[in-house]
Every structure is written in structure tokens, then in C-alpha cells.
Design goal:
Keywords: Cell membrane, Lipoprotein, Membrane, Palmitate, Signal
Pfam family, one: SBP_bac_1
Protein name: ABC transporter substrate-binding protein
Distance between the termini: 109 Å
CATH class of the largest domain: Alpha Beta
CATH topology of the largest domain: D-Maltodextrin-Binding Protein, domain 2
Structural class: alpha/beta
Number of helices: 18
Radius of gyration: 30 Å
Region (Disordered): 32-53
């Protein structure tokens, strides 16, 4: 009896074992089916579970912590970690990051996997082999979304080594409330400006205030006029600067003469020459002047000092007569994202770069900072200020340009080699025509000497 029971028990164990094998096989079959169904997402885990079965990784992200703050980077960290359960993003925000990155590249020590930096001569880093070639990710997922200025800026010796990460507009801001109250139309051309300016003065208001102690702000107005007059072909000639004759172009003279007319006609707030940028902006928000050369940071920079109810907006620099390119905008593109050549997590960093360049994260950047990225994206559904919307309107409806260049001769010679054109014209030491002619002569006289100094002969 006992033997029979043992035999039956053995048989039962065998049956259970066989059944377990069958069930295991069925389970494997179901898993295969599930994997096939996942093919709808490319065979990858669903979003939010990517890499869940992989080993833990740390992605080190360094960034310049300045006017944009750190809110966007914290959002990037949160969203990227949510989509990659095995990844921890370590943020390193540092206002002094630019002083430290050069030595870190040189030593190869303490490198981030990806860094969001301010404008610099990054081409030197690329030529020294410090930067990862990003051409693959640039061509596959980023280039088509970048604006024209951003696309050009990314390239060095036919390869993409950086992705620009911030943008904006350099030009003119105006008192929108004042314009609407008086029924003034924002001038599209300098001819319209010339008609408007006397009306503004008749109200006891200066048409323009500027920071005389930071006179380079006039670049925001004059350089767009040069591009308007000469077109993008002339801009390319300037930035390449392969011969001194590029400075002998009427487009540059026309722009300088239009600038000179502002002072000849007394359309500038008295005392502007003694103001710094903050003081000139205070005069603007206090209604002493209707317009000011400035950039898209103006609203945020003056937030604590702007009177309640004051309304400002950016305007396109008026077009000069006979402009080849009347609708241009001076882009601030130049801040860069790089991946060090010796970064530990290269592929993960590229994935993070693509993620940061998405429509959703571009919109989030503007929402959180009130500033812009050099990508094509919409602000629809995002609550932004009237000023911010005006900046985006200019960016979306005008051709962007920059004065970024890798030409050693342009960097040596400059646009005004004979001296400070704006200061000379403002204070009357030279006329616009004299400045132009002296620039042409200086370039011709110094060309061979400079080429030799730069090792280009």
C-alpha cells in the first residue's frame, strides 16, 4: 500500500513538473507577443520606462547660471529622469563656469558629460580636439528645427561641434503705451521714422535715449542697417574678410549716415552720452524717451524699476531706403551646448541634447525664463508678456543674422578699424563719410602687416 502511494506521489510530481514546463513555454510565447506589440514604439520600453532594465547611470550636466536662472535645467532633469528610470542627472550650475571650462578641457579632469555655456571662441576647442563631433545628431534630429542663424553657427570646418541654446533679438524697444495713446504707428522705414520723430518731440519727449557709456549698444541698430543695405551676400563677405576691399562698400556708409542723422536732427535725449545702460533704461521706463536701442532682456532687467502700467515692446529696426533685405533681425544666438570629447556618457549626452531641443522643452524654456531658444516653435497656449510676444513675433517674421565669424582677419580688423565709429560720430570728431573713408584706407594700409602677424602669409 505504501509503495502504491509512493508511486502515485511520484507520478503526481512528474505531472506537475511537465505542466510547469508547458506553462513556462506559454508564458514565453505571451512575452514574445507583447514584444511584438511593443513594436509600435520601435520595440523600446514605453515612455517613462526607458532603460528600466539597464544599469544605473549618472549624467553630469554643467550650465552657466546667469540671467536664465536654473528653473529650466531643473525641469530638464525632472523630465529626463522620468523618461529614463535608470538615469540620475547631476546639475552643476555655476556663474563662473566659463573661467573653469578651458582648464578642465585641457586636463581632461572633472569634465561634465554635457555643458551649456555662454558665447566663446569655441572653434579653438574644436580644433584642439576637445569637443565631440555632433554632426550625426545635428543632421538627424536638430538641424531642421534650428533657425538659419543657429544652423550656421553650429558648423566649423564642415562639422557641427556645438548646438546653440539661447536666442533673442537685438534692436529697438519702444514705449507701446505711449505709441497707442498718441496714435503713433511703429515706423517700418527710416522715412517713416523721420516723419514720426518731430511729433514725438512736439510732446516734449525725446525720440531716443541710449547708453553713452556703453556706446556699443548702437550695434543693435547700425548692424541691421548694414545688412539691410548690403544683403546677406555682403554680410558673408564681411565675415569672411578675405580682402580689404570688403570695407569699401556703400552699404556700410549708408548705415553710418542714417545713424549720423539721428544726432544731426537732435532726436536724442539730452545727456544720453553720460548714461550707463541701467540709467538710460530708467529714462526710457520713466517716459523721457519713446525708444531705446536694446535687447530682449530689457523687460526682465528693469522689472523691479518699471512703473506700474508701463507697456513696452520690441520693434524691428526700420528699413533704410532701397534696402536689399528690409526684413532682418539681429539674432543673439551664440550661447553653446557642447559635449566634451572625453565625456564618459557620450551617447546619453547626445540623447539629452536631443531631448532638450524638443518642442516641449523649447516652449518650457520660454515659459520659465521669458527668453528664447534658436528653434522654430510656437508660444500658443503659453502665458507670456506683451513684450515677450513682440520679441517672438520679430524672430518668427524676419530673417536672422549674426556677426559671429571664425575669420582671424575680421577679428583683428573689425568693422571700424580706424577707431570707434559711434563715438567719433556722436561727439563730432568725424563725419560718417570721414569714418568710412578712414576705415577703407586703414584696412588697405594694414592688410599685409596683419596677415603676417596672424601667420596667414
Amino acid at each position: 500500500m505504501k509503495a502504491k502511494l509512493l508511486n502515485r506521489f511520484s507520478l503526481l510530481i512528474t505531472v506537475i513538473f511537465v505542466l510547469s514546463l508547458v506553462l513556462s513555454a506559454c508564458s514565453g510565447s505571451n512575452g514574445a507577443n507583447n514584444s511584438t506589440n511593443a513594436g509600435n514604439t520601435g520595440g523600446k520600453p514605453a515612455e517613462g520606462a526607458e532603460g528600466s532594465s539597464e544599469e544605473p547611470k549618472v549624467l553630469k550636466v554643467a550650465f552657466f547660471q546667469g540671467g536664465y536662472g536654473d528653473s529650466w535645467f531643473k525641469e530638464l532633469k525632472k523630465e529626463f529622469e522620468a523618461a529614463h528610470s535608470n538615469v540620475t542627472v547631476e546639475l552643476e550650475g555655476d556663474p563662473g563656469i566659463m573661467d573653469k571650462m578651458g582648464p578642465r578641457f585641457e586636463s581632461g579632469a572633472n569634465l561634465p558629460d554635457i555643458a551649456f555655456l555662454t558665447n566663446t571662441n569655441w572653434q579653438q576647442w574644436a580644433s584642439q580636439g576637445y569637443l565631440t563631433d555632433l554632426t550625426d545628431v545635428f543632421e538627424s534630429s536638430i538641424k531642421s528645427q534650428l533657425n538659419e542663424a543657429g544652423q550656421k553657427y553650429a558648423i566649423y570646418q564642415d562639422k557641427a561641434y556645438v548646438i546653440p541654446w539661447s536666442d533673442g533679438v537685438l534692436g529697438m524697444a519702444y514705449n507701446k503705451g505711449m505709441f497707442e495713446e498718441n496714435g503713433w504707428k511703429v515706423p517700418e522705414t527710416w522715412a517713416e521714422f523721420n516723419e514720426l520723430a518731430p511729433k514725438i518731440k512736439a510732446k516734449g519727449i525725446a525720440p531716443i535715449v541710449y547708453p553713452g557709456k556703453v556706446i556699443g549698444y548702437w550695434d543693435f541698430v547700425v548692424k541691421p542697417m548694414i545688412v539691410q543695405a548690403g544683403g546677406f551676400d555682403y554680410l558673408d563677405q564681411l565675415l569672411t574678410m578675405d580682402n580689404p576691399d570688403v570695407l569699401n562698400n556703400p552699404a556700410k556708409l549708408t548705415a553710418l549716415q542714417s545713424f549720423e542723422n539721428l544726432f544731426k536732427n537732435d532726436w536724442i535725449l539730452k545727456g544720453s552720452e553720460g548714461l550707463n545702460h541701467t540709467e538710460s533704461q530708467m529714462e526710457f521706463v520713466n517716459g523721457k524717451a519713446a525708444m531705446i536701442p536694446n535687447g530682449n532682456w530689457l523687460e526682465a532687467e528693469m522689472k523691479a524699476s518699471t512703473p506700474e502700467g508701463f507697456r513696452m515692446a520690441m520693434m524691428k529696426v526700420p528699413a533704410i531706403e532701397g534696402a536689399k533685405e528690409p526684413n532682418v533681425q539681429f539674432s543673439m544666438v551664440g550661447d553653446i551646448t557642447v559635449i566634451p570629447a572625453k565625456a564618459k556618457e557620450q551617447e546619453l549626452a547626445k540623447e539629452f541634447l536631443t531631448f532638450a531641443s524638443s518642442e516641449a522643452m523649447n516652449r518650457k524654456f520660454t515659459e520659465l525664463t521669458g527668453n528664447f531658444r534658436p528653434f522654430k516653435y510656437s508660444l500658443e497656449g503659453i502665458e507670456v508678456s506683451e513684450f515677450t510676444q513682440s520679441v517672438m513675433d520679430i524672430m518668427q517674421n524676419n530673417k536672422p543674422f549674426t556677426f559671429n565669424t571664425t575669420s582671424p582677419m575680421f577679428m583683428k580688423m573689425g568693422l571700424y578699424p580706424a577707431g570707434d565709429a559711434y563715438g567719433n560720430i556722436v561727439f563730432g570728431s568725424k563725419t560718417a563719410e570721414q569714418q568710412f573713408n578712414e576705415d577703407v584706407k586703414f584696412a588697405a594700409d594694414k592688410w599685409d602687416k596683419y596677415k603676417e602677424e596672424l601667420g596667414l602669409k
